[in-house]
Amino acid sequence: MNITFLKSTLSRKNLMALTGLFLCFFLVIHLLGNLQLLLPADRAAESFNYYSNLLSGNIFIKVISYVLYFSLIAHAVDALVITVRNKQTAAKYAYDNRKQASKWYSRNMGILGTILLIFLVIHFKDFWYVYKFGTVPFDRNGNKDLYVVVIHAFKSWWYVLLYVLSMFALGFHLLHGFKSAVRTLGLYHPGYAALVQTFGTVYSYAITIGFAVIPVYVHLTQFGLWN
C-alpha cells in the first residue's frame, strides 16, 4: 500500500468521523424537536409548528442546515469511497477471519448506510421538500402546519414500519460508528475506553427508541388505540 493511498484513506476517514459526530449532535436536536409530537394534539400542533418555523427562519439555523447538508453528502460519499477501496485492498490479502472478532453490524455498515440513505431520500421528499416548496396550510398562528403533514404520513402503517426499521438500522449504524469515529480522531484512550463504549451504547439506544416510538405513538393515537 503506497503512502498517497494511505494518506488519502486516513483523510477521508477523518472527514467521515467529523461529519459523523456532527450528525450525532444533530440527531439529538432533531429528536428533542420531534418529541413534541408526543404532547396532546393541540399543544403538539402549536409547539411543533412554531419549532419548524423557527428552524426555517433563523439565520443561525440556516447556516447549521448548510453544514448538515454538507455533512450528509460528505459522510455518504466518503463511506462509499472507503468501502470500495477497502474491498479492493482486501482482495490482495488472505482471509483474516474477522467475523469472529467483530459484530455483524460492524461488517455491514455499507448495507446499513444504504438503508439509511434510501430512508433519507424519502424523508426529505415527504417533509423537507414539501415544507420548503410544497403547498402547506397555515395554522392559527400563521406558521406552516407541518404537524398536519407529519400526522398524515404516520397514518400509513407501511410508512410507520419503514420509519421504525430505518431507525433500527440507524441504531446499529451508531453502535459501530460512534466508537469508530472517536477512535479515528485519536480520542479513544484505554483509560476511558469503557466510558466511551457505554456512552456510545446508551446514546445509540436512546436515539433509536426515541425516534422509533414517535411514529408508532402517532399512528396508534390516530386510530384511538393509544389514549
From TrEMBL:
- Identify the domain of life: Bacteria
Q: Name one GO cellular component term.
A: membrane
* Keywords associated with the record: Membrane, Transmembrane, Transmembrane helix
The answer to whether UniProt assigns keyword Membrane to this entry is yes
Task: From the record, give the transmembrane residue ranges.
Answer: 15-39, 59-84, 105-124, 156-175, 195-218
Spell out the NCBIfam families in the cross-references: sdhC_b558_fam
Protein name per the record: Succinate dehydrogenase / fumarate reductase cytochrome b subunit
Q: Which organism is it from?
A: Pedobacter cryoconitis
